[in-house]
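Please decode residue identities from the backbone states below.
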């Protein structure tokens, strides 16, 4: 597979593996929150904990992300317009 072709895997099909943050968050991924909101959610326990692959490499279990998507993302930042 050439470098210009990317393999895309749906996050919710139960495939084992790891996903990097750029494949989880919008615009490339299904979760429409910013990086800072994501990390705040990880810290608070609202989003899944990462797996450290190296000193500067972090990923998330695909199963954890699929469960998050299936359960729905309860993010107060997405409800700003409604009172």
């Amino acid at each position: 597979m050439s470098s210009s072709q990317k393999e895309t895997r749906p996050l919710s099909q139960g495939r084992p593996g790891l996903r990097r943050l750029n494949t989880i968050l919008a615009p490339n991924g299904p979760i429409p929150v910013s990086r800072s909101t994501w990390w705040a959610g990880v810290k608070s326990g609202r989003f899944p904990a990462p797996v450290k692959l190296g000193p500067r490499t972090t990923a998330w279990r695909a199963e954890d992300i699929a469960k998050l998507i299936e359960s729905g993302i309860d993010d107060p930042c997405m409800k700003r317009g409604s009172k």
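Observation: Residues 1-8, 78-83 have pLDDT under 50 and may be disordered.
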